[in-house]
């Protein structure tokens, strides 16, 4: 066991308006299974890159461990090669037999290494890279979001695999994965960093208790400040009245009361002194109150504008199938989506979830092509080429005039400024930015180009655009990839409050358990 010591770490990107880390210090052990938690854009991936020595920084990071990072960057030429041909390029000194042993623990056959990497599913690619990552000895591993785009089976395999390991930092927003795999947490709070023993649920329970404590302390200080202000006002009034009583008093005309003026002056001086003491206490109370709520999470309540369609059944599929050339990805599907339902499409990667969504979007768009208005978001235009290659069988019908708000799982199309995005998607810029602020996107991000955003921040742009669009049906394809835990809970509360009709593909177990009214297995 060794330790990683971070002291007085300060770092900011060149040209950035603010530092990501400012005088940060903490200590962690290399045999921990450490979960790394924080809001999008707080610097989790940046910190991993600092450990890898990719950026220059102020302060000191001391570590005797050798670091390795997941996911590996796979070049385009490598995607055409078998994984076994470039293992050494991913991890120098990597031994093939060790990788095969790790693949067995991930329920994957060794023959996967002899297939072109580009032909592997998301789950198979993740497992191969994890097997390479853990094939070394005595490395401290930096694992960044390993379960994005993975289906339930692959997530379970990765969860069970990581549960048996130690000596890593795991960046993830999947609460189920964090609870299963970690024994310590490293948390980037709003204004501080903390290290704590336990899993996500333990930390979350402690955080709620501390937030409640600081809220109570804040209220106590507010009441004390109010009481002291009232006391200061009374003392000031008494002093003013006492001072005014000297006006018009002539000691020559009233020689029997020669000491009265001096007495009034002494009394006034004492009252003014008491007033100053009270005001000093007010200042001290305000200083003690400052910073109490700096790390308290108090997310804003989001709003949604779902529309009510006149028909009860919005989608209906009967013996429906989709194929691409000779590849059948979906067959004999029977289901219907009724008004008010929140249906989760569930199944392995490649079972046709996204293809079904594209077919529904195209169908809804074609129904109203002659009526002069769009029924789906602008992003759907990018799916038309994909949909044109479909061969459909059976029937799929959408209610006439159905207006759909859509979130694509792909964020690669986001570029340029938020102003340009709002113009292209016919969004009210001020309202759009207000929703982004409620999703905790800092104002400083509004002037940046979206290609400079983190993946989580890009996802929030798509979510905000969907929330701003009134619709009969909200179709979200893996909306929570890269989204931080706090925003996930915020979105859960939004959906439960407004009860929109939804069709969702999402592999977050906690989110599905809380939101779904029905799950359709594909």
Give keywords.
522 residues; five-stranded parallel beta sheet; six-stranded mixed beta sheet; globular; alpha/beta; single chain
Can you give a write-up of this model?
With 522 residues, the chain is an alpha/beta fold. It contains 16 helices and 17 strands. The chain has helices at residues 44-51, 76-79, 87-90, 96-105, 122-133, 152-163, 175-181, 200-244, 260-289, 353-367, 384-388, 418-424, 429-438, 455-468, 485-498, 509-515; strands at residues 3-11, 21-29, 33-38, 58-63, 66-70, 139-144, 168-171, 184-188, 193-197, 313-324, 327-338, 342-346, 390-398, 404-407, 473-477, 502-505, 518-521. The longest helix has 45 residues, at 200-244. It starts with a strand and ends with a strand. Mean pLDDT is 83; it is low at 368-385.
Helix residue percentage: 25-40%
| Main sheet: strand order | 5-6-7-3-8-9
Overall mean pLDDT:
83
Largest sheet: 6 strands, mixed
Number of strands: 17
Unreliable stretches: 368-385
In DSSP terms (H or I, runs of 4 or more residues), the helix count works out at: 16
Oligomer kind: single chain
As a percent range, the share of strand residues is 15-25%
Question: Can you tell me the overall shape?
Answer: globular
